[in-house]
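Appendix B, record 7
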Amino acid sequence: YTILQTDLAQAKTKREQRILVKAFEGEIKAMFNREIKNLTITQGGILIKLIDRETGNSSYDLVREMKGGVTAFFYQSVARIFGNNLKNKYDPQEDRDIEAIIQSSGYYMYNL
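Structure tokens (predicted):
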């Protein structure tokens, strides 16, 4: 995400930015599409919180920034149908179990 942000800042036109976002989206889909499709609803909720933990932005904010408000609203609506919320924020106190697992794995957060 940080690399994409840097590339977008250097892009001279909106067209270049759209091309970069599409390429980034394609890379992400190629890497994770199969795994994401097989997530349970609970695992999806945890992923939403982990995305916020790592980027400092909610999943909703990321989708809105990259794909636009209408798409973000649509994805949020689908998430709500399945009992999740793309606007969920990661809170190390509230999400103690997740944080304990991450800390015990030896992985540390970049966005504190």
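Remarks on this record: The chain has two domains: 1-38, 41-112. The mean pLDDT is 89.
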